[in-house]
């Protein structure tokens, strides 16, 4: 650049001086940087083999995880199969609840039947006593036997009426049991459906157990990887520190 006049030279001169000072300051800077690179190069040479040891470690870990992933997928499928099973079982229980209600109604219906039958027997007992008296009376006196039989006849009529009341009672109970029987059959079918569900769930657990074992193995494989990586970093930092004239404090 050509300086036109003295005023320009006066203005530009300090700039040149500052620039020269910059260059003078920059030169040792470049020397330090070159030294830094020279120190860093062997460091990288040490770190590279270290990473070469770390890489297969990570590859094994990745393979381990790749084995674990399908294991989890199988377990998820297993649980997805088990979910409808639980729904079926819930339906079973919902079906069985009315069955129990019907059976309770059966018992409630049958209880009065038993009471009626007990009353029948209680009514019939005096009838038998009267008949026995009739027979005892018949031997000595036929004339007394006729009034005795006349007393026995209404007694039998009462007993017949009693049995007539009991008969529909038994019919109701039989109908009740007939309603309960298919109910029990449905419940049995439910349980039969649920049994394979339990088998599937057991299979799920059996499938998941190796998954956990594989994952534990993965972690066990990965632990040394972390140790190697840590050793790589520590070794590299130590070399840089020593190359710079520092010291490593004893642990």
TrEMBL record:
The chain crosses the membrane at residues 12-41, 53-79, 86-110, 116-138, 198-223. It comes from the Eukaryota. Keywords: Membrane, Transmembrane, Transmembrane helix. This is Uncharacterized protein. It comes from Apolygus lucorum.
